[in-house]
Every structure is written in structure tokens, then in C-alpha cells.
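Record type: ASSEMBLY
Status: queued
Input:
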Amino acid sequence: MVGVKLFRTWSSPFALRAVWALKIKGIDYETIFEDLSNKSPSLLQYNPVYKKVPVLVHNGKPIAESLIILEYIDETWKHAPLLPEDPHERATARFWAKFGDDKVLTSIWSVFIKQGKEQEEAMVPALENLKFLEEELKGKKFFGGETIGFVDLALGWLGNLISILEEIVGLKVVDGEKFPLLSAWMQDFADAPIIKDNWPPRDRMIVKFQALRDATIAAAAAAAAAATSK
Amino acid sequence: MAEEVKLIGMWGSPFSRRVEIALKLKGVQYEYIDVDLTNKSPLLLKSNPVHKKVPVLLHNGKPIAESLVILEYIDETWKANPILPQHPYDRAMARFWAKYIDEKCLPALWNACWCEKKDREKAVEEGNVCLKTLENELKDKKFFGGESIGFVDIAANFIGFWVGVLEDVVGVELLTIDKFPILCKWRDEYVGCSVIKENLPSKEKLGAYFRTRVESASQSK
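Status: finished
Output:
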């Protein structure tokens, strides 16, 4: 089997990273949209460990985990590089991409799925993490410098998902006054060619994430009730 | 300019030891600086302001943090005895398994050791799922890296050594030979390698360290 296939969902921000990378490099690929409530046998075969999207399949061989897919794409198709040349700059890029997933994403998600006092408390680490990103942008248009790079793609979900989450919870997380550089970057990234053509439909995202928040809050409440009734 | 390599680490940290293995494998001379994690040094805080953790590699004054990121940096900077494979697909697989070890295996195994007794059975079961997955990945290979130690083997150092110490101290069975014969064989080969053997903490010192943790946990209840 020859060629490139990408298993994704319409909404996954992780899958979008692979979409962006493939489009930036002008690689032809076939898209397979998955319904995660009814995973295809192919997906389960290609990603038996996590059973998640995205999965890139190149010449029949699968690669899972979005940042690993990005590095694979970058090493296989060497034009329009995503990572810099210099080893220290590469290490710095990998560091910030990991920070984005391990800290920024989890802390913002925490704010999103909580309410009241718990939500207020969750804001503290979320804002601290965003502050590190703000610092990192000093003197740069993109995290990659003059052009979009690995870290921009890794953090790119901020360019779309933040305003959606903010609208749902009625809270400003990335305040333009507190985070001028980050706010400008989010706008520049979201409007950049290729990036702007691939955002999922906003209204559909709002419905989906509202439902996700409601379900998470309900489940947490049920668990708390079950714990106290023992 | 003479090359200056420093490693800020902690003697008992598997993450810190990963970096030492890589540097030794490549014959890189470095200065080791051990930190007291209960009293973090200004150098550590300045070198890793984001996480304030070890290990941090300082190469000609420039810091790199996060052990797997450091391993990739070392591999790209000093080309002798490569840690990652050449081919992009094999590299992707190595990164996948190292990430699986850090994000799934280590937390599951750690939790199985330190959770409350009532949760232990379930926690051990989750640990077993991870070990089984690694067992299946290893198959008939001597090491995850093939004939010699590679990126994934270095990442798996916690499983190769720390798990055994924890099993003794905490009294939990995790890496048993009846369930995981291939992984146990890997472990024996692994700790038999000189570059690994020479870069492990003392079993006694590590055991004592974990024992004080067990004791303080039981006292605080």
C-alpha cells in the first residue's frame, strides 16, 4: 500500500496539527474521518495501544501521537522544515511543545470543566502557564520566529479553542491586556494561510464542548455524591 | 572554546540517570551537580524556571530540560553511538514507546506502589496492562533498541531497576517472571550492561530513601 492516510475526527485539535503539517508541506493524503463512539477496525488495528486519533499511515505503516507524527512528517519530507536546524533550538522547540500539552492544555481544561470556587482556583496555574508562553514570544511574531513552526502547530489549538471555551464558561482566560503578545499570536496564527482554511465549524464546536463540559460536571457531581453516601 | 557540559541531577532520580547513561554511552565529559530537591539551588531555579526540576543539562551555559528532550539533544550533538535509529519510521516508534513509558507505565507503576491498600489490586492490574504491552513490544528482541541499548531502553530504566527496589520496600509484586518472562529477561540483560550498571544508584541507598517515605506516609495517617 502506497500513499499517506490520516485518521482524524472533524473536531480533534490534535489531528489538526497533522493536517496543518501535511498541507504546509504540500503532501497529498487521504482523510478518514472516525466516529469515536464507533471506532473502525482499521483505527483499532493501526493504534491498538491508545485507540485514538490522529493516526498517520504512510506506505501502510502507522504512526500515532500527534507531536510524534509532526516529527515524522518533518524528517520524511525535508522541505519547508517545521523544526529548526540547530540542536539547542530544536530542544527548545520540543520543550515548549511538551509544555503546551503537559501543562497549558491540562490547566486550561481544568478551568473549563470546573465551576465556582474550584474554577477560580484552577485559573491560577492556567494563567501562570500562559505567562511562560507570553515570555517566550518576546521579540517574535511566531514561536518559530518569522514563520510558523513546530511549536506554533503544537500550540495552535489556542488560536481557536480558547475563544470557544471562553464563550461557553463566560470567562476571559487570555486577556488581551495581560497577554498582548499571546493574543496577537493567536490572531496571526488563526488567520495565517492554510491554518485559517482548516478550522472546524465554530457553532458545531460550541455545541460539542458545551455538552462535554455538562457531562463532565455531572459525572463529577455523581462521583462526589457516591463518595459521601458511603 | 573548550566544551563545557554540566548536568544538574539527583542521585535517586531515574530521569536524571537517563541523561548520565546517554552522556557515558557517547563518552562525553561532564560535571555532575547533585541537588537537594527539598532545598532547590539558585542554579537549578535559574536553569529550569518553568518546571524547577531535574535533570537539566547545561551545554556551554545553555540549559535544556526534560529528560527525553535532553536525550534527543545529546544524540543530535554527539554523533558517536547513536541512541535513536536512523530511519524516520523507526525513530517515530522509539519516540512512541518512550512516551508510552513516561505517560502511562511510570504513573501506573508508581501508583501501584503508593496508593492506599484498598485501591492496590486495581492499581496493580493497571500496571500489569502497561508491562504486558511492553512485553509484547519487546517480543524476541534483546533490547527495545535491537541488539544494543537505545532510546527506549534508556527511557525504561525505571522499569529495569527502580521497580525492583520498590517491590522489595513496599511489598508489591509487579514485574514477575511468570507474567512477564520476556521483560524480566530484558531487565537482567539491561542491568548487566556496563553503561547501565555503572550509572545506577546504590540499591541500599535507594531502598532506604523509599523506606523513609513509607514510614512517613504511615505516620501521617
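Annotation: The two ends of chain A are 56 Å apart (CA to CA).
Annotation: Chain A has a mean pLDDT of 96.
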